[in-house]
Write a structure and sequence with these properties.
single chain; 39 helices; 7-stranded antiparallel sheet
Length: 1098
């Protein structure tokens, strides 16, 4: 075990210990007298001394010491000690057995020995090793506690530290934590790795330096185990711009497994919500635990291995042995039980598997416990077979839970017993049929049959035509769905018949392209059956609806099964056997294609090296997965591939693809270009024949070589399938699922990169923001969407992210998210008024009033603020203060600036320094006429601004100038401009009155004109106005100013022109936003919980 590092004096210890191993930093020692057959006197004395000591005082026989060259101190980290060197060392580990101490020694060699050489200071070496060993001890302790308690004290302490160090909202659930090192170049930083539901975080405080890393799972583009110069095994996290290596884990396998699960769940939840359904236990991210993730991994493996429906939840996994009559012995393995199934898999891969739907089970009984048959149970099924399981732990509880579920299944779906169909009338392919009949009699003929290596060989030979449809139903377990849902298909057909929509139009378009050369689809009977199956499935599963290649698959299913059976086979393929294949983005097929590329590099390295860019192979092999070779090779050969697929799942397609590439590897390696390589593959696939097929040969759709070429050698499909099993059949379901998980991250992030590039490609020509800054803006926009998804209800995610929409509309933000980005990025900072301005900007940009904005609208608004001409900026400000941006219920409607009336008693005169006055009434009228003439008639005229709207406009301008270096000059300028605009509004007001009345009004206003010192834009609500007469309602409704008035007035003041035309740099705002985006979201969430906290501009 690891020891808390403590000093050890060596002066008198040399007689008690013997060195077994040593390195430049560590020494492994054995206690004298331990393990010595003919020990000397000194050894016997030490052994006798240890034997008589109390057990608490006894010394472990092995230990490991830390020794630093040139240092006077040694540090024991495991039981061990040095025979030479300084007088003091540090003990770091001890062991009761040589095996235990060697494990510690190997860990030190692999994880620390090469690392220590990078330190120059000896004290740093000691500090680093001591810190690492203490962390290992803490992790061992927490692991032991976690086994005994659901919420151990250590985990609670870690949770407190996690919250304090990273300041996430309370909804950010910590899943687990580990001690490890994070590498920065060649220097390791010892610290703690925290894995939460949305982030991977690392914290280190070493040698007075603090390091914090926060990496969202959705930013991870690659997660892999690798090695570097110093360490043999590390975990590498790759994001868009950085790679991070983590190492020195006590249990690296467990850490990597949890990381994979968290990354997979989070990326699929946030990026693949088109078709991905979370398990019920993971629907609420804030409730995810380490145990839930491990259970999900087990469930995924269970469903993939036995190819069961997604609704099946693994209940128990029990070690046991099953009596196998064909081998006349009990076969060791494991029993898996779920809601509706009892399954068995032998420990020896491929030897025997059994799938028992509870619907087929008649009884579950306990037998007498004997020494030969310990804890046995008998499971009897309808076809008069019985399965004997023995060596079951907790037999009582297991049988009780199985009986309860059996009762429930029979209650929900009553069983109607019927005799098995007779095989006496089969006359075709008698040899194969005879072999299958022999197999049925020994291994069973229903879905509950023993599945062994023998049946796999029979499948590889090709299933007889007369048995093919029936065995496809059994192998896929579609027969159970068929039996559990009587009348379901007929109801779907009735509901979907005659409906006209985009899906049915696509189906109609493809009906006559489905095996057009086959006689079954050259008449309306076959076409009508195909139409009914496809439309019924689209009605059943609208999220998938209809995708290309489903028509070819369904056509083949109809050739060998009845219409309703073909429907349930289609359900099994689309929803269980090929998950995520049939959707808008065919994510599942792309993931398997990526896995296939890795298998090519592993099994066919020479071919992978020759075709270093496997994209050419990907373009053709992707169709292998999408169509299961049905449109790639002649139909009579492709159905043999389908036989293997229904028995072995996607594994059969992987290994057959590798066999095809191996058979053509020599030609492919000599090919000059991609086109020639594709020709080689196409010719080979089109010349795959089925010598045993009783029907006529039907060529593939993709044959495009001419007949005048030299005869091409023919390959028998049975030989090709046999080679695929012999050479590439070693891939287990568990390995394939692991590879899928690994490559799903890459594929999803590839789609995200494609979306990003397309959005930027569309937006770049429309704005003046540099491409680099635009990329950062997109990242901030997407992260703002993600931040809201992290801690929102799962259902809200789909509302704002839809991968099926056009690229520019896939990510959208709501008003609250827009406000946070506006606060971080807008150059128009107006103090507390900024948030109100952001709300108005959102209403202005939300053209379709769906309360969501896409990136394009957001960045175009920012572009005007930073790079627009003065008239564009003023126009934007103007629009922000008229409907729809400004509403009656605007948050600022109760501002004290709304109720005071404009000082309409102001005369149309301006004070001069010499006391003279000049009448500007004629000049103002002329200015308005000139603006009207110059107005572009093609542009839609903006509504004029009312008195209330003008007040809000002025308030925004005053707020924008706050804390500007030219603040005083700007305030004076805006006061002058506002006065001018008030008078312009009054001119328009008088223009709507009669001439005499207008003149009388002017004279009256001139008589009551205030002095220049009293000139102010707004009446102070705290002081009485000079003219306290109420403003007539009729007159207030007429008072207006236009955009042209405002722009012309602002142009009269150079300081205002300079303010709006000065160059603005968005980079400082971007840097600030990247730092504070998380903090702003956290502050907002805290303010909801604690109202005393207010959100403010950052």
């Amino acid at each position: 075990m690891w020891l808390k590092p403590e000093e050890v004096l060596l002066k008198n210890a040399l007689k008690l210990w013997v060195t077994q191993k040593s390195s430049c930093y560590f020494v492994l020692q054995r206690r004298r007298g331990h393990g010595e057959g003919g020990a000397r006197l000194s050894g016997r004395l030490v052994g006798a001394l240890d034997a008589v000591l109390d057990s608490n005082a006894r010394v472990a026989p092995f230990r490991i010491l830390l020794q630093v060259p040139g240092s006077q101190v040694y540090s024991p980290i495991a039981c061990g000690e040095s025979l030479s060197g300084p007088d003091i060392c540090w003990a770091v580990a001890s062991g009761a057995t040589l095996e235990e101490i060697n494990q510690h020694w190997d860990w030190l060699e692999q994880n620390l020995l090469h690392t220590l050489s990078v330190f120059d200071n000896k004290d740093d070496i000691v500090s680093f090793v001591k810190g690492k060993v203490k962390a290992l001890i803490a992790e061992e302790t927490s692991s032991r506690v976690a086994e005994q308690e659901e919420e151990p004290e250590k985990f609670r302490e870690a949770l407190v530290k996690f919250a304090a160090r990273f300041n996430f909202p309370e909804a950010e659930k910590l899943v687990t934590y580990y001690s490890c090192c994070c590498w920065k170049g060649r220097v390791p930083r010892q610290g703690w790795l925290y894995l939460s539901i949305n982030h991977l975080c690392f914290y280190s405080f070493f040698l007075g330096k603090e390091l914090k890393l926060v990496i969202p799972w959705v930013d991870i583009q690659k997660l892999e185990r690798t090695s570097n110069v110093f360490l043999t095994d590390t975990i590498r996290i790759t994001t868009q711009d950085k790679e991070r290596d983590f190492s020195m884990f006590l249990n690296l396998d467990e850490v990597f497994r949890i990381m994979e699960q968290l990354a997979d769940v989070t990326l699929r939840r946030l990026l693949d919500n088109e078709v991905f359904d979370l398990d019920p236990d993971l629907q609420e991210p804030s409730q995810i635990t380490k145990r839930d993730l491990e259970a999900r991994a087990q469930n995924e493996f269970f469903r993939a291995f036995f190819r069961l429906p997604r609704k099946e939840k693994l209940r128990a996994v029990v070690d046991c042995a099953l009596w196998t009559p064909f081998s006349r012995c009990h076969t060791a393995g494991r029993m898996f039980t779920s809601n509706s199934y009892i399954c068995f898999a032998s420990r020896e891969d491929g030897r025997c598997t059994v799938v028992l739907p509870l619907r087929e089970v008649v009884s579950i009984e306990k037998m007498e416990d004997t020494s030969l048959l310990p804890n046995p149970i008998i499971v009897s099924i309808r076809s008069k077979m019985a399965f004997q399981f023995i060596e079951l732990r907790d037999r009582e509880g297991l049988v009780e839970s199985l009986l309860a579920r059996l009762k429930q299944v029979h209650a929900d779906h009553p069983v109607h017993y019927d005799s098995s169909p007779s095989d006496d009338d089969m006359s075709r392919e008698q040899i194969k049929i005879s072999l299958w009949n022999d197999h049925f009699s020994e291994y069973g003929r229903t879905v509950c049959m023993f599945r062994t290596e023998k049946i796999r060989k029979l499948v590889a030979m090709g299933i007889p035509e007369a048995l093919r449809g029936r065995l496809w139903l059994l192998f896929s377990d579609a027969v159970t769905d068929l039996a559990l849902h009587p009348g379901y298909y007929g109801k779907l057909v009735e509901e979907s018949l005659g409906r006209c929509c985009l899906v049915t139009e696509e189906i109609e378009r493809d009906l006559h392209r489905s095996l057009p050369e086959h006689p079954a689809f050259q008449n309306e009977t076959g076409i009508a059956a195909l139409r009914r199956v496809l439309t019924a499935y689209a009605h059943r599963n609208p999220r998938i609806g209809y995708c290309q290649s489903m028509n070819i698959l369904t056509s083949v299913l109809l050739l060998y099964a009845k219409e309703e059976e073909a429907f349930w086979l289609l359900v099994a393929v689309c929803e269980r056997m090929l998950p995520d294949y049939f959707n808008h983005r065919v994510i599942g097929a792309q993931v398997d294609q990526s896995v296939f590329e890795e298998l090519i590099k592993e099994h066919l390295p020479e071919l992978a090296e020759h075709m270093n860019d496997l994209s050419a192979l990907a373009s053709v092999s992707l169709s292998w997965f999408l169509t299961l070779f049905l449109s790639i090779m002649p139909l009579e050969s492709a159905v043999n591939v389908m036989d293997c697929f229904f028995y072995d799942g996607i594994k059969a397609i992987f290994q057959l693809g590798l066999a095809v590439l191996e058979a053509t590897a020599e030609e492919l390696c000599s090919s000059k270009d991609d086109g020639q390589a594709l020709m080689i593959l196409s010719r080979f696939l089109d010349h795959i024949k089925n010598e045993d097929s009783p029907g006529p040969s039907i060529s593939s759709h993709h044959a495009f070589f001419s007949d005048d070429q030299d005869p091409y050698p023919v390959t028998d499909i049975a030989d090709l399938i046999r080679d695929s099993y012999e050479k590439f059949g070693d891939q287990s379901v568990e390995q394939i699922e692991h590879l899928r998980c690994k490559h799903r991250i890459r594929v999803l992030q590839g789609h995200e990169d494609t979306t990003r590039q397309n959005v930027l490609r569309v937006v770049i020509p429309e704005v003046s923001v540099s491409p680099e800054d635009l990329e950062e803006l997109y990242d901030l926009f997407k992260r703002e969407h993600m931040l809201s998804c992290y801690w929102a209800q799962p259902g809200l995610v789909a509302l704002r992210h839809d991968p099926s929409r056009p690229y520019a509309e896939q990510y959208r933000i709501d008003a609250r998210q827009f406000t946070r980005l506006f606060l971080l990025l807008s150059p128009w900072t107006c103090g507390a008024h900024t948030e109100i301005l952001a709300e108005r900007a959102f209403r202005l940009l939300d053209d379709n009033v769906d309360q969501l904005l896409e990136f394009r609208a957001f960045v175009c608004c920012l572009d005007i603020m930073y790079n627009g001409e003065m008239n564009e900026k003023i126009k934007l400000l103007y629009r922000l203060h008229i409907p729809p941006a400004l509403t009656e219920n605007d948050r600022d409607s109760q501002s004290p600036l709304k109720n005071p009336l404009l000082s309409t008693s102001r005369p149309l005169v301006f004070g001069k320094s010499n006391g003279d006055t000049v009448d500007y009434q004629k000049q103002l009228k002329q200015m308005i006429r000139d603006l009207a003439k110059e107005k572009d008639k093609t542009e839609k005229e903006l509504p004029k601004m009312s008195q209330r709207e003008f007040i809000q406009f002025c308030k925004t301008l005053y707020s924008m100038f706050h804390e500007d270096p030219e603040e005083n000059e700007l305030y004076q300028a805006i006061a002058t401009v506002t006065t001018l605009l008030l008078q312009i509004g009054e001119v328009g007001q008088w223009g709507s009155s009669s001439g005499s009345g207008s003149q009388e009004c002017v004279e009256e206003l001139q008589a009551s004109a205030p002095s220049p010192e009293q000139d102010s834009v707004f009446v102070d609500p705290g002081k009485p106005a000079q003219d306290t007469r109420p403003f007539p309602e009729a007159v207030e409704g007429v008072w207006t100013v236009s955009l042209e008035h405002i722009l012309a007035s602002l142009l009269t003041e150079q300081s205002l022109v300079n303010f709006f035309e000065k160059p603005l740099d968005i980079k400082p705002k971007l840097e600030n936003a990247k730092i504070n985006q998380y903090n702003l979201k956290t502050l907002e969430m805290s303010s909801h919980l604690h109202p005393e906290l207010k959100l403010s501009n950052t």
